[in-house]
Amino acid sequence: MTALLDIIDIDTAYGQSQVLSEVCLQIQAGCAHALLGRNGMGKTTLVRSVMGLTPPRRGEIRFLGQRIDGLSTSEIARLGIAVVPEGRQIFPNLSVRENLTAFAATRSGAGHWTLDRVLAMFPRLAERAANMGNQLSGGEQQMLAIGRALMTNPRLLILDEATEGLAPLVRAEIWRSLALLRETGLSILVIDKYVERLIELVDRHTILERGRVAWEGDSGALAQDRALWHRYLGV
Ligand SMILES: Nc1ncnc2c1ncn2[C@@H]1O[C@H](COP(=O)(O)OP(=O)(O)OP(=O)(O)O)[C@@H](O)[C@H]1O
């Protein structure tokens, strides 16, 4: 079966500084995958490699069988990969509704997300639909960033530190939304540090250690092996 995303043996560098070495990661359609590792281990760089922002120096990246390393970021996004970046990056001077509709895309066979559906998923955003981006709390901004990514009707949603800096109750709300998204069959790659929540949410995990894959396996195996958490995640 062709994988949805297939990262094959990539090396990625910033100038002289090589950050990723021989990284492989595969996500099947309909699956959720977590990318784990301590700070600075190369998780965001992997996302940048996939999106063509820092293309790999070696190796291949395939999406639905098609090679995407070498394509521009906008071409990759048009194929159906949406990223919710670290730091959210919503438009402060647009309303919630405008932030969402500015990104709407119709792609047959993928998702059919509409403004109404996104607002039904995030009732807090529905209440604040007319508010400006800069009037939202951190959690609401994060929901808006996820909603905006959904409006592109992605085949793969990538979330980089979606719960970073949020209060525990808001974080719980984001985790609930991600679980609902999973139930819709959306494929997800999530970077986060809350390994217990990730074990509940996703099917498979890849742990990066200094830019290399240190471990790969399913939630059952990661849940049982606390030594892995300690060695690679510092928890
Ligand atoms: N634009 C850049 N230029 C040079 N080096 C960079 C750049 N961005 C990141 N790095 C370096 O690459 C390494 C991996 O960073 P990356 O952001 O991918 O890690 P991460 O696992 O996502 O960590 P974090 O959780 O802190 O975001 C780090 O040593 C970092 O200093």
From TrEMBL:
It comes from the Bacteria. It holds the Pfam family ABC_tran. The keyword Nucleotide-binding applies. One of its GO terms (biological process) is L-amino acid transport. Residues 5-235 form the ABC transporter domain. Keywords: Amino-acid transport, ATP-binding, Nucleotide-binding, Transport. GO terms for molecular function: ATP binding; ATP hydrolysis activity; branched-chain amino acid transmembrane transporter activity. Belongs to the ABC transporter superfamily. PANTHER family: ABC TRANSPORTER ATP-BINDING PROTEIN (PTHR43820:SF2), HIGH-AFFINITY BRANCHED-CHAIN AMINO ACID TRANSPORT ATP-BINDING PROTEIN LIVF (PTHR43820). This is ABC transporter related.
